[in-house]
Amino acid sequence: PAVPSLELAGGHSIPQLGYGVFKVENDVAADVTLTALEAGYRHLDTAKVYGNEEGVGRAIRTSGVPREELFVTTKLWNDAQAFDDAIAACEASLERLGLDYVDLYLVHWAVPSQGQYVEAWKALIELQQRGLVRAIGVSNYPAEQLQEIIETTGVAPAIHQIELHPYFQQRELREIHAQHGILTEAWGPLGQGKSDLLENPVVTGIAEAHGASPAQVVLAWHLAHSIVTIPKSVTPSRIVENLAAAELELTADEVAAIDDLDRPDGRGGADPATKTS
Ligand code: NAD
Question: Which residues line the annotated binding site?
């Protein structure tokens, strides 16, 4: 399936639909990432803390997909936000991946109480200047800390990766992103199996109308909003199914009906403002 790309600040582009490997053990990650690459995914999302960068790197080499056709993201963990630690952590991630650069490096969480989220951002700016990473961004920054790093350094993240799905639409942050030319990337796009999102009658009704699956409808909604989305599955048929969402086009009315599913208590994961480690 043809996956659209979005332009990143700085001139690179990112495939809008990628493959995430949270909670996938290293050896399993090598297998399922290879399945994903064979299915046609060209954008992979891992992190130091997932413990599977080595497996993801192995899959990349086994696949034979040329490096320049791939978009690889990894993330700086919360225990290495001090400047020198962050530089070393990125080098170690590249070593485990077997790559000489990643396309996108993210600060994984702001952890405001730790007080190092500005320093970590400065380290990513340095890593980009050194050429170890093509684009830099953040993940899980509350609005306040997001605005602070931009004001302090004059450099806006190319991307902000946040929990986002129809039950938790993050309108306030998306507004700030639009003002600064920051792309929004959704983690937990399918709701992480923590809610009844994929059984919601609005979602299943639209799915039936298109002969599509509920997961495809939710992913097509992300794409319709110019959001980058990185669903995870370890089931080969679902890996293929999720990628095919790139070919599902929702009507404006369908997008609006899903927009109406936003809930004040829709967050499924940790709150970035209060996460402490
Ligand atoms: P997700 O919303 O992608 O949900 C994954 C789960 O949904 C699967 O385990 C499976 O149970 C189910 N599923 C997948 N495809 C399906 C289908 N076609 N039909 C029915 N059910 C299906 O949640 P996630 O894995 O947590 O998030 C996606 C990716 O985002 C992660 O793998 C990771 O790369 C990234 N992530 C980042 C952060 C962060 O803090 N930056 C946090 C969580 C996840």
Answer: 108
To the query of whether residue 50 is one of the catalytic residues in this protein, the response is yes
d(CA 25, CA 85): 25
Distance (angstroms) between ligand 1 centre and the Cα of 19 equals: 9
CA–centroid distance, 235 to ligand 1, in Å, is 12
The alpha-helical segments, DSSP class H, found in 163-232 are 171-180, 201-210, 214-224
pTM of the prediction?
0.98
CB atoms within 10 A of CB 247: 13
* Cβ–Cβ under 8 Å, residues 218 and 203: yes
Residue with tokens 């400065």: 122
Beta-carbon-side half-sphere exposure of residue 74 (alpha carbons within 13 Å) = 30
pLDDT given at position 242: 98
Domain housing 75: 5-192+222-234
Whether this model's ipTM surpasses 0.90 comes out as yes
If one counts the domains in the chain, the total is: 1
